[in-house]
Each structure stands twice: as C-alpha cells, then as structure tokens.
Design goal:
Layout (H helix, E strand, L loop, with lengths): L1 H9 L23 H30 L5 H8 L12 H5 L18 H10 L1 H4 L2 H9 L4 H5 L16 H6 L2
C-alpha cells in the first residue's frame, strides 16, 4: 500500500502529507442500544484519560525522585541494580529535582464573542465545555477535524495554559 501511494505521488497523481496518528474505530455489529454504546465509549475514553494522567504523574514522580532515577526505573520493571547509575540527574547533582509549580489559575485572555459565535456555528464540535477546552488547548477531535476548526485562529490559543484551568473557564 505504501509503495503504491509513493508511486502515485511520484507520478504527480496524489499529494501525500503527514498527519496525526488517530485511533480509528470500526463498527462490526449494530449494538442493541446506541445510548448504551455511547455510554460505554464515554466510560472507555474517561478511563483512558485517567490512565494517561496517572502515567504522566508517574513520570513526574520519577523525575522528582530523591535517589537514583535509573534504580527506580529498573525497579519498576522488577529488576534490581546494586549501585547508582552515575549518569542520571540525581547522581550527577546529588539532589532531587522539582518541577515548577503550576501558576495560579487566572482569567484567561480570550475573545469570548468569537468563541460563542464559533460554538453556535459548530455545536457538534464545540457544544460542551470539554470540547471547547480541547479546541482552545489545540487538541483535535474527529468533530473539530471534520469541521476544519484546526485552521481557526482560536485553535490552540490557550495551548500554554493548564487544561484544567481552560476547562474550568470554558
């Protein structure tokens, strides 16, 4: 398939471009109830989001660990290391690192009128606070992609802000 696409591109018949990796889903059989399917998918996405947040917290804990980070990492995988590695941040500095505390939540600088108008134009893509927060933080979704909203000036306008702060004010 890749070879065929490459050939078509060389012939000038298609133009290929790299795109974000997306998880695609295929409906193999009709569910007994669309409401039940929606609820199951929402629960699945919530679990995945929670799992990703916990994974990031584990990485932060490793970075801020008071001790050899490599020893901790191999311990996570059930291995042991007798001596400190000598090359991780802790071994090189002799001190635990700490990431900067997130800034206090503040009013976000945002053109509310434009966002409200955009939400009215695209209620499927921006109808919920979570959808608006994702959009403002620059996180795509199938609905925002379909509506071609990633090209809008507000897409990613608050990418430097904490998602929780943007969500609270969306």
């Amino acid at each position: 398939m890749v070879k065929a696409l490459g050939y078509l591109e060389q012939q000038g018949l298609v133009e290929l471009k790299v795109a974000d990796v997306r998880q695609r889903f295929t409906l193999l059989e009709q569910p007994p109830s669309l409401d039940e399917l929606r609820d199951r998918l929402a629960e699945r996405f919530d679990r995945r989001e929670q799992s990703e947040a916990e994974r990031i917290q584990r990485v932060v804990a490793l970075v801020e660990r008071d001790g050899c980070q490599v020893q901790s990492l191999v311990g996570y995988f059930g291995e042991t290391r007798a001596d400190p590695c000598g090359h991780c941040t802790y071994c090189l500095t002799g001190a635990a690192q700490s990431l900067p505390e997130p800034g206090t939540a503040r009013a976000l600088d945002l053109d509310r009128t434009t966002l409200d108008e955009l939400t009215a134009e695209h209620p499927t893509a921006l109808g919920t606070p979570r959808q608006r927060a994702r959009f403002l933080c620059g996180l795509t979704s199938p609905a925002t992609t379909k509506a071609k909203l990633s090209r809008h000036a507000l897409f990613g306008a608050l990418a430097e802000q904490r998602f929780a702060d943007v969500l609270a004010q969306s």
